[in-house]
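Exercise 3.2. Students should predict the tertiary structure of the chain below and write it as structure tokens, then compare their answer with the key that follows.

Predict this chain's 3D structure.
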Amino acid sequence: MTPNPAPPTIHVFGSLNMDLVCRTPRLPQPGETILGTHFETLPGGKGANQAVAAARLGASTAMVGRVGEDDFGRQLIQGLQQAGVEARGVAMDAGAPTGVAAIAVDEAGRNTIVVVPGANGRVGDDDIDRLATRLRPGDLVLLQFEVPLLAVMAAAKAAKAQGARVIVDPAPARDDLPAEFFKTVDILTPNQIEVSQITGLSVTDIPTATEAGRQLVQRGVAIAIVKLGELGAVVAAGDRTFHQPALPVKAVDTVAAGDAFNGGLAAALAEAMDLEAAVEFASAVAAASVMVPGAQSSMPERSQVAALGRDLKHC
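Answer key:
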């Protein structure tokens, strides 16, 4: 009997940050100082968040990136391991501190974020080599823009060369993506701000998000998923488009909702769900995450996602 092939591994190539979180009654205006109510340090970074999200859902997940040779770096690696992420691909860099993100979160769960890359800004060829040696055909690679764009582009090319599927969360937003980059992306998952910056369209609702998704497909992306927060997500794939409504939950903290979505999407695709089912599952993962404060601490277990679905059906 031929043994069953190993399930795909989700490889996350990207950032690891320590989040410095301030809770405030409201977000400050430019030039304004306000008093916060609480401060804490929490493991974060879009790459690490997505890795933890996928691992908590039961997916085989590995992280490739950089931290500083400091206490924050050691804490971040330990946190990945505790979540079930294989972290041997995370290098400790003596030449830069661990990246940090200064985050303000108001009582409505809205946030502002300032990221200082630190060691993330030094991700390059050595890290791409570590990624490439781990890849197998059918694996998935998650990418974001909190490490240098040249490294992200090279990682996408390496992934495609190995027969892996490439999912890109284009955050932070930027408008300088070269045309050839889009052709290396299987799934692009911008939010409303990011897709507006990439396409030049003013995306404010489902119809404009649908048009933006179509434009991304025309540029060479196989599938575009535009995340719209409370409006859900719009998907464009070839000549087909569809809308996935958001689940009606009360948001406590939206800091890593997009990362939860991407981790959930990758986990679903690794289980061979079809596109509609995968997007529906990713939306449920994101909804579960906004009900809990924090970044990695908000990433739900599989049982929590299932329980949320049952609860909403009985409402």
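Discussion points: The first strand starts at residue 10 and ends at 13. The chain has a mean pLDDT of 93.
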